[in-house]
Structure formats: C-alpha cells, structure tokens
Inverse folding.
C-alpha cells in the first residue's frame, strides 16, 4: 500500500526535477526588480561556462505610478504584483531545456504556474494557489509529469480562539487518495492535539497527545493507533532541579497486530505485546513477538523489556506476515527487518533460525 500511496510523490519528484532549473538566478532577479519603476521592470541576463549556457528574462509588474505605495517586504497582502520569468538552458552538447514561471500575489491571494520542457521535448507543469482570509487559509496544487499523469493536493487551515484545525487531501496519478485531518488546542499552559490519516485503501491511523506545563515541570502523553488496531503509548515528564535537568519517560505497546514499526532496536517497554512467545537460547530467556526480540531486566522493582538484535542461532516457530524470501548464492533466506533466517526442522517441527547476514 505504501508504494502505491506515494506514486504521487514520485510524480512530484520527477516534475520538480524538470522545473528546478527555472529557479536559477532568483536572487539576482528579485534584487533587480526591487528597483523597478511603476508599471513594471524587465531584466535579462545570460551566462556561459563549462556547464553550458543559461539565458533568463524576467518581468515584474507593480501598481501604476499614480497608485504606487512604498514597496512592502511582504507583497502578499499588498496591491497586485505579477512576476514572469523565462529560462533557457543549453548543454555543451547543444541540447536545450526551457522553463517559464508566472507568480501573482496581492489582495490576500497568491497563485503560480510553472512549466518546464526537457531536452527531449517532454514537459512537466506545476500550478497552484493559496489564499488567506479571516483566520482561514486554503491551498490547491496540481503537478503533471511528462507522461501527462497528474497528482493533486489541497488543504484548509482554520484558527479561532486558541484552536486550529486542518484538512488535507492528496490524490495520485491513479486516482487513489490519502487524507489527513487534525486539531490543535492550547489554553492555560496546556496543549493537546488529535490527528487522523486515511490511506488510499481506506485504512486509518490515529494519534493524539497532550502537553502541560506547571511550576517548571512539563508532562506529556501520546498515543498512536495503527491501521490494524495495534497501539503505542508514551508518557513522560521533565523538570529542572538545582540546575539539573531530570527526564522520565516510558512507552507501552499493545495489540496482537499492527504495531510493527512502532518499536525499534534499543527501545524499552514495560508491557509485552499480547501474544508474545518465550524463547531460550544459550541459557538466556527472551520474549518474541512479530519479528522483535525482547530481553527482560528487573530495574528499580519493576520488569522492563528492551528490544535487541537477535543472537545468531536463536530459533522461532513462525515469522510475522510480510517477510521476504531471498535467494543468495543458491541458498534461500527468509528476511524480517534485515534479520536473515534459514528454515529447518527442530524437534520434528518447522523452525526458523537466525543466521549471519550473507551480504
């Protein structure tokens, strides 16, 4: 699902690569335009080097002489301004690429259009708009790659009385969409947030948390639930005492599925995930679940469990969903998070033993 979800990301990356050279020389163009008179300023420039040659022409329109006000650093909310820039890059081989950009700002709105044509004649476009009014901001963007496939993104942000809300939707070239929405509130030294993300298959993940501050101490709680229902929660506090920073934190994982990726080697939890199995190797006891190995320790009157890299030779009865099968030098390996296993029989049953990485 992840690869399909972000097909739009690959399209945007390809289009952005073609559009990148359009921005060459922005600094000098902006500097020249600041001195333009009423009605507009036109600037042209060409340079040649071992990289080839670049030619650019820019035109910046501003309010007329009669209505012109002192130049503002931020023209977003000022009168209408339009900037047009055309660029040509010619490689030493003689092949050329072209680009153009048009940006309009003013009156609380901004819009842009970019188009780039590569040396082979393939074209990519990028256009979008942004507006802000009465504590609300909106944006829309569409990127079209050289093959004509498009990806779109749109969103909205509102803010009122210490509360902010946002909604965002991204649609890839194949028409599959992902959405994200959230809420942030802040009041009396406390902040909290809620967020929900829905992938193109309709599967949803959520996260929420809160932070509070009182008498020089900060406390936080956070919880995230994956699309399969697995939950990870974290909490902690921090304070300064006699110039020394003290931090306490802990995390817990629950749910028999869907929590993969929430824990990492080196992380410590106080509660093992449901459905774990006990595994012994070399006289040491471990706990195993979902491809992760936990080593227990008794610290300050409580048990904790640290995720470790499994020792070579340890064997488990089953592997989690999503493992890979790789054949290297004629030998079949089963791979989970870069840990290699070989399949065999232990006590008359199928088992998977951790082996040294063959690569």
């Amino acid at each position: 699902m992840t690869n399909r979800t972000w097909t739009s990301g690959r399209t945007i990356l390809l289009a952005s690569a073609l559009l990148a050279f359009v921005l060459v020389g922005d600094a000098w163009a902006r500097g020249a335009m600041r001195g333009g008179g009423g009605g507009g300023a036109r600037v042209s420039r060409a340079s040649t080097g071992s990289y080839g040659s670049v030619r650019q022409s820019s035109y910046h329109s501003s309010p007329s002489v009669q209505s012109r006000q002192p130049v503002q650093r931020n023209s977003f909310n000022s009168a209408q301004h339009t900037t047009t820039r055309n660029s040509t890059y010619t490689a030493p081989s003689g092949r050329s690429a072209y680009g153009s950009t048009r940006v309009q700002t003013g009156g609380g709105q901004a819009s842009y259009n970019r188009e780039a044509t590569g040396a082979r004649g393939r074209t990519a476009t990028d256009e979008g708009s942004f507006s802000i009014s009465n504590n609300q901001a909106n944006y829309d963007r569409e990127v079209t790659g050289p093959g004509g496939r498009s990806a779109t993104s749109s969103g909205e942000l509102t803010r009122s009385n210490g509360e902010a809300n946002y909604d965002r939707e991204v649609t890839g070239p194949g028409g599959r969409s992902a959405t994200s929405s959230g809420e942030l509130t802040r009041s009396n030294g406390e902040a909290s947030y809620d967020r929900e993300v829905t992938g193109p298959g309709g599967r949803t993940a959520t996260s929420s948390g809160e932070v509070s501050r009182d008498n020089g101490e900060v406390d936080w709680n956070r919880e995230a639930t994956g699309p399969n229902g697995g939950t990870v929660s974290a909490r902690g506090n921090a304070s300064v005492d006699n110039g020394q920073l003290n931090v306490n934190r802990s995390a817990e994982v629950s749910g028999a599925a869907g929590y993969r990726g929430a824990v990492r080697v080196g992380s410590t939890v106080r509660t093992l995930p449901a459905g774990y199995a006990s595994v012994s190797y070399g006289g040491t006891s471990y706990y195993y679940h979902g491809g992760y190995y936990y080593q227990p320790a008794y610290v300050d009157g409580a048990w904790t469990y640290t995720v470790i890299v499994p020792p070579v030779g340890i064997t488990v009865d089953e592997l989690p969903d999503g493992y890979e099968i790789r054949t290297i030098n004629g030998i079949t390996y089963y791979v989970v998070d870069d840990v290699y296993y070989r399949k065999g029989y232990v006590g008359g049953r199928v088992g998977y033993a951790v082996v040294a990485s063959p690569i």
